[in-house]
Amino acid sequence: MRAAKEVSQCYMVTGDADFVLIVAVEDVEAFDVFVKTKLYTNPNVRKFKSMIALDRVKFEPRVLV
What we know:
The chain is an alpha+beta fold and 65 residues long. It has one helix at 28-39; strands spanning 7-12, 19-23. A hairpin with a 6-residue loop joins strand 1 (7-12) and strand 2 (19-23). The radius of gyration is 13 Å and the shape is globular.
């Protein structure tokens, strides 16, 4: 995922998933291409769940000091 240009953020997490990817693509067709070329073909990916943002409710990037 480090080399995938579509992946803007990748987090190793605890819980039901091992990783969370933030993927930035132009449209659903581009996302379909990403899934088929980067996820389905990767032998380390056994399953995945997609969530597509419909609207941004809040975005405040900051560093707490």
